[in-house]
Amino acid sequence: MDDQSGVGRDLTLAAACVAAVFLFALLSPAFGTAGNAATVLRNGYELWLIALGMTLLMAMGAIDVSVGAVMGVTAILTGQALLADLPLGVVMLVGPAAGAMLGLCAGAVVVWGRIPAIVATLGLFGVFRMLIFLVLGGQWLSGLPADLTRVVDWRAAGVPAGLLIVALAYGAAWVFLRRTTYGPHLLAIGFDEDRARLMGLAVTRVRLATFAASGALCGLAGVFYIAIYRNVSMTIGADIALEAVAAVILGGTPIFGGRISLVGTVLGVLLLRILQNGLLLIGVPSLWQTVVTGALLLGVLSAEVVLRRARTGAA
Amino acid sequence: MAQLPALVDGVERLTDMMQAPPDAFVQARGIGKRFGALTALRDVDIDIRAGEVLALLGDNGAGKTTFVKVLAGAHVPSDGTLRIGGDTVRFASPRDAADHGVATIYQELALSENLKVAENIFLGHELVRPVLGVPFLDRAAMRARVRVLLGELDAHIPDIEAPVGSLSGGQRQAVAIARALNLDARLIIMDEPTAALAVAETRKVLNLTRRLAESGRAVVIVSHNIADVFEVADRMIVFRRGRKIAERKRAETDPDEIVALITGAHPDARVADQP
Ligand SMILES: Nc1ncnc2c1ncn2[C@@H]1O[C@H](COP(=O)(O)OP(=O)(O)O)[C@@H](O)[C@H]1O
Ligand SMILES: [Mg+2]
Predict the structure, then answer these.
(1) B172 in any annotated domain
(2) Structural domain range at position A259
(3) CATH no. for residue B13?
(4) Is any Cβ of chain B less than 8 angstroms from the Cβ of A205?
(5) Distance (Å, rounded) from C-alpha A213 to C-alpha A104?
(6) Which residues in chain B have their CB less than 8 angstroms from residue A179's CB?
(7) Which residue lies with its CA nearest to atom 26 of ligand 1?
(8) Do B123 and A199 touch (CB under 8 A)?
(9) Which residues are registered as beta bridge partners of B88?
(10) Domain co-membership, B138 together with B96
């Protein structure tokens, strides 16, 4: 599944991460500290989780632009569960369960409504945003207890539990992709949905399951959001869909599906978070963060077009 | 004496019945298919027998692929009945058809080119060892089976880990046929299997087609190439404008007649030209 060009892409991305680290360490004394490294990783948790779901969806030839709002809804539910003093185990399950339901809704609209995923999830994005507005009523959800924060920041042998959970999610995805029927079925659908159906695959089931899995990961991201920020504002998750799509494409999973790279997504998210953190530390206003994300996305996509032309021109 | 023609007719029908092999594997009767206002198939009767290669011929748009898709469960017919292996069937999906022993190799659409050879051969029918209901792949067993299948077909595919997109047209056909064999298909349908192949590869696929029939399977081949058809087919059926206009045994016809039927020059083709 990861072919030669995929490995080359991973190396390029890893090199870009290393180069960015050196550059920022030279420019800002605050960048190259252990504490800042931990911050960069901690800032990556939600995006890693959401981008994992987005990787699966995009490998299948789908996309979900409502992920930020799903994270928002599930973060609010998690916050309220926390305020209601429910057992911590239950609090942590509320988000993923609700996220899976919302993801399933998106999948159902796409599959049975026969609406292109980008259009359907854009519509749902509006609906979920409205939900957030109605629940929050223009206020912030704040003053949340730190119980979840302690869980996520608890360290086992120096490694934060949050990072372990993210790694576990990627590990589980890898096993499903490489060791079960899910991987080839997902990629066959991503390559050509009608052909996959002709070959006898349960296309609808795989598509619904993938939307639900992505939703559950958004819900887990909502739990992390509460753990880390301990408040929810109206604008929660506004940019995260763009960041996730950018990280996935940077990582080498093509927007039209049929191929997947988990390692690429891990590195894509890391690169985005290093750049955002570094630019902030050298004094670039945070307003520029989305510009950098967008520019990277455009840069990679146009580089691919140029490379493809060069390759087909040479053939 | 007025009864004589009726009597002759009766005797003829009786001898026909005795001569006709009793158990055509597929019996399609009165098959019709409409797409909105367009009638793609009209009242088609076809028998397909085990051990025989049946060729479907006809001009572009004559309805061959549509008929094949009805057999394969990809289209639900608007009219008619389909009996396969003695059961009346109504396929809701290609998966249903596969479960009844029907495997179809579509024109250029048979495989997922981004996946490996073995993944393609087993796609949707993987050998698994479920753990807590999760279908874990039995990769060693599948690799072993792939070697056996490709060996049986005498197909030379050096690297079964390669994506199918990197194979030649003939190698892809071999993979598609290996897939059909693996499904233990009793009816194998090939829609234009040689359309995109070089001469040597075409030979190979035609040989394979014969071998499949000789192993007792029913084989349907759709082709534009009259020479190919005369090389492999035992029986030929010509479609025109959604109708079956002729059925010939190979020994009882010749390329000129078949071409005349396809182009509409033959008198028998006129049935299809009435409204
Ligand atoms: N899915 C479809 N929807 C509408 N029309 C179709 C569809 N599939 C085939 N047709 C029409 O049915 C007719 C028969 O097509 P087809 O069976 O593909 O012919 P052949 O394979 O003999 O070239 C053509 O007029 C074609 O345009
Ligand atoms: Mg056709």
Answers:
(1) yes
(2) 4-19+35-279+286-302
(3) 3.40.50.300
(4) no
(5) 8
(6) 136-137
(7) B61
(8) yes
(9) B83
(10) no
Q: Does residue B203 lie in a domain region? A: no
Give B221: exposed, middle or buried? Use CB within 10 Å, 0-12, 13-18, 19+. buried
Residue of B nearest to A195 (CA): B109
Q: Is residue A39 part of a domain?
A: yes
Cβ within 8 Å of residue A117, ≥6 positions away: A57, A62, A63, A64, A106, A110
Q: Is B25 domain-assigned?
A: yes
Compute the distance from residue B224 Cα to the ligand 2 centre, in Å.
9
Tokens representing A112 are: 């049975």
SS3 at position B245: strand
Domain presence at residue A315: no
User: In total, how many domains does chain A have?
Assistant: 1
Residue B202 lies in a domain: no
Asked if residue B240 and residue B165 are part of one domain, the reply reads no
Cβ of B74 within 8 Å of Cβ of A201? The answer is: no
pLDDT in tens, B187-240: 999 988 888 788 888 888 898 899 889 989 999 999 989 999 999 999 999 999
Last residue of a domain, one of B185, B203, B236: B185
pTM value? 0.84
Residue A211's Cβ-count burial label (10 Å; 0-12, 13-18, 19+) is buried
pLDDT tens string A256-269: 999 999 999 999 99
Count up the domains in chain B and report the number: 2
User: Nearest ligand to the C-alpha of residue B33?
Assistant: 1
Compute, in angstroms, the gap from residue B13 CA to the centroid of ligand 1.
35
Among the partner-chain residues B74, B113, B114, the one whose CB lies closest to the CB of A198 is: B74
